[in-house]
C-alpha cells in the first residue's frame, strides 16, 4: 500500500521560520489546514506547533479542530452557503464574506446561538474569484457594520488562486487604501487587513509589504517552503515536509510502444506512434501501487533523478527504471517529492496511508 509521510522536524522548522518572520514584523497569521483534508493525526500535529488560528474551507475540518482544542480560533475561508449557516456559527469563529444576504443570515443565527460572529469582508482585486467590487465597498460596509451579533474584524482579498494575479506591492497598497477609506468614512477601526497568503511572502522578505497589511494566511509555504514568484525553495526552509512512498509490484523489460489497435485509455488519452518510431526499443518498467484515483502524476518528482514516470491508470503507475543505478526489486519502495496539488490529491485519498517520518 502506498503511503504519504509528514516529516515532523521539517514541519516544525518551517513553522519556526515563518513564526519568526511574522513576529519580527508584528504580523498576525494563521495556518491554512485545508491541504490536510481533515486528517485528525495531522491536524493534531499542526495544533502542537502552538498556532492558535487555523483556516479551512470545510466545516467538517473546523469541527474536528474545535474538538481537538476548543480555544483555537477557527476561520472559514470561503463565502458561507445558505444551508451551512448554523454550522458556520457553531464551528467557525470567523468567516470570509461577500454577500449582504449571507451576512444577515449569519447575524440571525449568531443571535439564536448567543454568539458574536466575526467576519472579514473580501474585496475583489483582479483575480476574479470571491470579493466585493471596490466601488461597492462603502455601501456594502454601511449595510452590514451595524448588524447584531456580527463583528467586522477585517477586510481581505484573495489573489493568485484562480487567475494567477500576483499580490504585488501596488495591489496590497490598494487594499490598504480601502481600509483608510472605510475608517475615514465611518469613524471606525478595521483591526486586520488580510492580504497575505503564501504567494506574498517574497514581499515580506524584500520588506516591500505595505505596513497596513497585518494578517497572513499560510498553507503552501509552511508545507513546501516555496517562493511562488520564482518557483524556488525559500532560503532556510524545507520543501520536502511531505513525501510519497510507493511499492514496486512488478518489474519487467517491455517494449516502449503498445501493439494492437489503439483507442482512448481510461483517462481519455490516445497513444500516438510516429512513422519514425523504433518499435523494437524496450525499457525496464516497474509498476507502482497507486494511480489516478489517488494522484495526478504531473505533480510528482522521483527522488531518484534517473526514474521517469511513464503514465498512470486508475490504480497503478508505470515508471521507467532503465537508467537507475539502484538495483530495484519487487517489494522495494520508490519515494517521490510532491507539489502542493499532488499532496492534496494524496491526502484526500482514503487509499493512501498517512504516517509520520
From TrEMBL:
This is Predicted amino acid racemase. InterPro entries: Ala_racemase, Ala_racemase_N, PLP-binding_barrel. The keyword Isomerase applies. CDD domains: PLPDE_III_AR_like_1. Its cofactor is pyridoxal 5'-phosphate. Pfam families: Ala_racemase_N. GO terms for cellular component: cytosol. Keywords: Isomerase, Pyridoxal phosphate. GO terms for molecular function: alanine racemase activity; pyridoxal phosphate binding. The lineage of its organism: Bacteria, Pseudomonadati, Bacteroidota, Flavobacteriia, Flavobacteriales. Residues 8-225 form the Alanine racemase N-terminal domain.
